Amino acid sequence: MPRTWFITGTSSGFGRRLTEQLLDRGDRVAATARRPQTLDDLAARHGDRLWRASLDVTDTTALREVVGRAFAELGRIDVVVSNAGYGLFGAPEELSDEQIDRQIATNLTASIQLARAATPHLRRQGGGRYIQIASVGGQVAFPAMSLYHATKWGIEGFWESSAAELAPFGIGVTIVEPGVSRTNFAGGAVLGEALPEYADGPSGQLRRMLSGDLPPLPAPGDPVKIAAAVIASADLPEAPLRLTLGSDAYEVATAALRHRLEALEAARDLAYSTDAGTTG
Q1: pLDDT digit string, tens, across residues 59-71
Q2: Mind listing the pLDDT tens digit for each residue in 153-163?
Q3: Which of helix, strand or coil describes residue 276?
């Protein structure tokens, strides 16, 4: 049976790939983007199965209005996908206050506000799915990406907590954790002001990589395959809490989690020793 999806950030990347595949298989998509005219070609092919709205997800009032209008006009939305986001790179003191606020507003606050706007509708209709396009950067952390990681680790915590609250209403949650993929993510990245003190460190190296002076990171992830895996997850009877996609994502997440567990186990005796009533 065809489903109806609401997706943010559909002009490019995973949002665009999801929209294309869903329309091709006969589903309806409520697609939002800051420039919805980027979807003119899909509208010409698929007609009224593509519902479009202009939206800057950092405008919470507009976000609530668009979500409400989509549910009102389409009747039911089965899957809500929070996809809009970008990367802010640089050492913390290289970043401006405005850049920090914008990164958090786009990658973290907007996803939370989308959930707050859509949950009453999903609850009233008897259920649905949330899919959060996050990143393996919510499980690992690299230098020169601290603010980006802060938002991705934050949204992981938000959804892991919220999933338990939403389950009794028949609302499933899936956090998607892709690795480096062949999208234009790097092209849309924002860099802080270069400080000479960081030129020889990870921040300077990342700048040289993005400018083409150094080879780019390998990008094994195929956006088409990733989009297909995300869509398939929504067809499962039970929503998987996490989808880690890409060989690089699997490898770095596995290594990070093993290292974290080893460090935790090594500190077991210290942890227990701080309980009230213990000695030594």
Answers
A1: 999 999 999 999 9
A2: 999 999 999 99
A3: coil
Going along the chain from its start, the domains and CATH numbers come out as: 4-247 (3.40.50.720)
pLDDT in tens, 44-103: 999 999 999 999 999 999 999 999 999 999 999 999 999 999 999 999 999 999 999 999
d(CA 118, CA 34): 19
188-204 core/surface letters (b: 16 or more CB in 10 A; e: else): ebbbbeeeeebeeeebb
Q: What angle do CA 11, 242, 39 make, to 5 degrees?
A: 10
CA distance 221 to 245: 8
The residue from 86, 148, 198, 272 that is catalytic is 148
| Single-letter residue type at 213 | D
| Pair of tokens at residue 235 | 């067809």
Give me 55's structure tokens. 């939206």
pTM above 0.85, yes or no: yes
250: annotated active-site residue: no
DSSP 197-248: GGTTSHHHHHHHHHHTSSPPPP--B-HHHHHHHHHHHHTSSS--SEEEESHH
pLDDT of residue 280: 61
At residue 190, the pLDDT reads: 87
Contacts of 16 (CB under 8 A, 6+ apart): 10, 38
CA distances from 119 to 10, 21, 228, 234 (A): 21, 25, 25, 17
Strands (E) across the chain are located at 4-7, 28-33, 50-54, 79-82, 88-89, 128-133, 171-178, 190-191, 242-245
